[in-house]
Target: Triosephosphate isomerase
Amino acid sequence: MKTLIVANWKMNPSTKKEAKKLFDSVRKSTKGIKNIEVVICPPFVYLSLFSGLKLGAQNVFYLSADRQVKKSGAFTGEVSPLMLKDLGVEYVIIGHSESRKYLNETDEVINKKIKESLLIGLKPILCVGETDEEKNSGKKLEVLEVQITQALKGVMKSEAKNIVIAYEPVWAIGTGNNCSVDETMSSILLIRKIISKLYNREIADTTKIIYGGSVDSKNTNSYITQTGVNGLLVGGASLNAEEFIEIIKSL
Ligand code: PEP
Model:
């Protein structure tokens, strides 16, 4: 299994020029790297400018018809899974804690987005993770169980292999307070147990689970070698070309 390194640029950078410069630096420096799958998730508006590295979107719309994909329609401001697929996008981040918080994305909406993305052939990166409060009140397992079970409701065994789960403790995102190796390892095991309960052991063992939350070039290697993750979701550090390249090269 190739290590998956996903860059989540969030709402950055502010200009097309800066976006192109960042993308090109990463593309040039990662040329020829075979054992790592690098995916760049820029804002929607930059997606069509890029080629030469795998792309992911940071969000997608759902058209609500269960297992029937409406290809387009009257949904002002939204972007469909088909539009992304047509641009050559391979992955889509769904259920990021910032979307849950600022866009009120619910587990039900996340589930619809996942199912429709899978139908079109996009690979969802489902983000899950507990808040500080949930962690301190011993609710981590419950939170992960609800988020994963609800998000994957109705997702068939045959589709599950195309899903990536990103364990992103909310308290670790953008704070510099990254999750410890031991805690990450125990969360990854919990997530595999939840998937095993939902599907089976084989799917649990082969599902790609990545970690996100204040990853940088100094802590990258310990996550990959000591926690059982299959990759990393990198936010802030992916906006600095040198640092992001260092993350990739440290593997
Ligand atoms: C993220 O938002 O997905 C993320 C991992 O951010 P950061 O690396 O900045 O904590």
